Amino acid sequence: MTPFILNSQNIFEYLISLKLCTPDEQSLSKVELKPAKNFNLLVTFPQGRKLLVKQERHNLEAKTNGEFLLEWRIHDFVQKFPELSHIPAYLSEAVHFNWENSIIIFNYLDNYRDLMDFYGKENLNFFPINIARAVGSTLALIHRITSNNEEYREYFQPTTDNTSNQKIHHPNRGLNKLTPEIFGKVPADGLRFFTLYQRYDSLGQAIAQLIDSFIPSCVTHNDLKLNNILVSLNWEDATDENIVRLIDWERSNWGDPANDLGTIIASYLQIWLHSLVTGQSMAIEESLRLATVPLYVLQPSIRELVTAYLAHFPEILEHRPDFLERVMQFAGLALLTAIQSQLQYEKTFGNAGVCMLQVAKSLLCRPDASIQTIIGLESSDFYPAQIGARG
Questions:
Q1: For the chain, which residues make up each domain, given as ranges?
Q2: How far apart are the first and last CA of the chain?
């Protein structure tokens, strides 16, 4: 069956059929195409109300990847269980989903902006810790309230065979031993990355161990980069509960909470790593030292992020005593994924990429030491109550 394809001409007819607007509003409203990987239309109505209408792109076989079905699932999930009624305040506002044609509609939150955009356009080296605190406490709330709940797990993993649901995306795929065939598939920079990766046996071993010890225990976002976090335009006056929202849940599942926290930390680290001054004859240590956004500038926000998370979900340290080490390792994993993404889309792997690979290796292979380097505290600083109880 031929799918219904949205466009600027039929959008109002579609919204009227859903009773999301009236015929009278049509002539006074504005439609704007928003560039994105999917087809996105922003509709602005006379009284300032805005709807973001998104449709997944169909392939030649009229099929989609089904990402919006997963996005809608998180909204359906929090509606299905009354005890989760406060969670929607921390998410985007989905108002309609058309499964057959893969169309999803949101209230457009124009009183928010994404956090990466906020950091990029504000004064250089401006990273307010109360924003990081709100991110940490919001993520901890979602993880904690869904943690180890069998009914919630069954919602996300309806089959009895959990092994298929425990897989996560990790950069070990495609990083097997080099063969002659690969030389025709990747650019020269890609071969440089593969060669360096193959040189570090401990890196592959650390990734394998991290994946093998993956234990799903709560609802996770699984793509929690800074541009998937919205911050209120009134963040200075808002309470922690109203500062941030977590959006784009297209990869959400029943997963490992350390993965989400590690991914956010990796996103902060990329601000540092993308600001490096690099050169052919420049040592990595010097490049790191000359960064225009030094690590020490980001460190207070990273520390507040982790501290707030653990303050709102202290039980995670009981469930997983190695939680912080795993957070560091997942941060390293996210950096490797970022390198692979850059190779895939930009075909580049320069000296900045080498620096990122070295940082990723440290995070994955020496997670305990990385806690002090990245957060600025020893791992034992987060365990005082537990240590006293065990003594």
A1: 11-107, 112-384
A2: 67
SS3 state at 200: coil
Kindly give the residue spans of alpha helices, DSSP state H, lying in the chain: 11-17, 23-26, 67-80, 115-121, 129-146, 150-156, 188-199, 201-212, 257-273, 284-289, 295-312, 316-319, 323-346, 351-365, 367-375, 384-390
Kindly report the pTM of this predicted structure: 0.88
- For the chain, give the number of residues: 391
pLDDT score for 378:
81
Token pair listed for 222: 């699984």
Instruction: Give the Å distances, CA to CA, from 103 to 12, 42, 73, 261, 356.
Output: 14, 13, 13, 30, 37
Q: Which CATH number fits domain 112-384: 1.10.10.10, 3.40.50.620, 3.30.930.10, 3.90.1200.10?
A: 3.90.1200.10
- Would you place residue 163 in the very low, low, confident or very high pLDDT band (cuts 50, 70, 90)? very low
| Whole-angstrom distance, CA of residue 191 vs CA of residue 50 | 47
Strand partners, 98: 103
